[in-house]
Write a structure and sequence with these properties.
The chain has 291 residues and is of the alpha/beta class. The chain has 13 helices and eleven strands. It folds into two domains: 57 residues, Helicase, Ruva Protein, domain 3, CATH 1.10.8; 199 residues, Rossmann fold, CATH 3.40.50.150. Helix content is 37%, strand content 21%. A hairpin with a 5-residue loop joins β10 and β11. It is elongated and about 75 Å long. The termini are far apart. Bound molecules: glutamine. The site of glutamine (GLN) has 9 residues, from loops.
Length: 291
């Protein structure tokens, strides 16, 4: 039988995972190898004896090296699961976090399935929030805003990849470029809320993520304040404003919502027991009508 032409030092999937991955998380190593081979997790288990080509081996080693140096795994593999979608992720967008799923759940519970609600997502980034809402509320019309054209390009690709056609993308600074007179049933936002110079910015994934998506002036409050202050003018009567915020910002968010004339103000805790999402309903006698 003729010898198969194969490199004498070829390494298998099982060996690569066993021998090369000491410096990174075990699960992340598997995600990276899946990404290099363009296969799913079941494949890695079923084909532990599949040999890596020299190119695949080199790409995997390079990814492991970059991960060990701190780069976020989502930027290395170019994707991240959020809610029930796999999203394309680049260093132009914040990596979607599990706690943001609480914001999506809260929004979904305020958006009827059987009518055409209008939803606004401010600072959409990868489109995680807007696309998940749009997918689960096919009758809704979602407008997704971001200041970054590069982020919008990623969000747009994600919309196409998931065949979502009920999201409109707008480049702008919060409400500034919305069509005149447009109002919404629900406004959602996961805005930047970390203070400039916060030590967390020098740790973990945050070191590699865009400041535009993370950092807000005035000790982390600038964006949340702008969004709350102007929201009533863009909400239908009884419409909801729902915001993700930092671990210690819920109380002040509720105060800001109250000052802006919101009713039924609430906060919800994430899986870690931290108040992470706050919101309120535009009252009938909201400030917007008095102005
Ligand atoms: N939740 C992110 C973090 O603290 C920050 C996201 C944001 O600023 N919106 O890691």
């Amino acid at each position: 039988m003729p010898e198969q032409a194969k490199p004498c030092n070829a390494i298998t999937v099982g060996e690569a995972l066993q021998n090369w991955t000491q410096q990174v998380d075990r699960l992340e190593a598997r995600w990276m190898l899946q990404s290099v081979l363009a296969v799913n997790s079941a494949f890695l288990i079923a084909h532990a004896d599949r040999e890596l080509s020299p190119t695949e081996a080199a790409r995997f080693r390079q990814m492991l090296k970059r991960r060990a140096a701190g780069e976020p795994v989502a930027y290395l593999t170019g994707e991240r699961g959020f809610y029930d979608l796999i999203l394309k992720i680049t260093p132009d967008v914040l990596i979607p976090r599990p706690e943001t799923e609480l914001l999506v759940e809260t929004a979904l519970s305020n958006i009827a399935l059987d009518r055409c609600s209008r939803v606004l997502d401010l600072g959409t980034g990868s489109g995680a929030i807007a696309l998940t809402i749009a997918k689960h509320r096919p009758l809704a019309q979602v407008t997704a805003v971001d200041l970054s054209s590069r982020a919008l390009a990623v969000a747009h690709e994600n919309a196409q990849a998931h065949a979502v056609d009920n999201v409109t993308f707008v480049q702008g600074d919060w409400y500034s470029n919305l069509p005149a007179g447009e109002t919404f049933d629900v406004i959602v936002a996961n805005p930047p809320y970390i203070a400039e110079g916060d030590p967390h910015l020098a740790q973990g994934d945050l070191r590699f993520e865009p400041d535009l998506a993370l950092v807000a002036k005035h000790n982390g409050w600038d964006c949340i304040r702008q969004i709350i202050t102007h929201a009533a003018g863009y909400l239908h009567r009884d419409g909801w404003l729902l915001l993700e915020h930092g671990y210690d910002q819920a109380g002040t968010c509720r105060e800001l919502l109250e000052q802006a004339g919101f009713a039924s103000i609430f906060s919800r805790t994430d899986l870690a027991g931290i108040e992470r999402v706050s919101g309120g309903q535009r009252g009938s006698f909201s400030i917007a009508e008095c102005l």
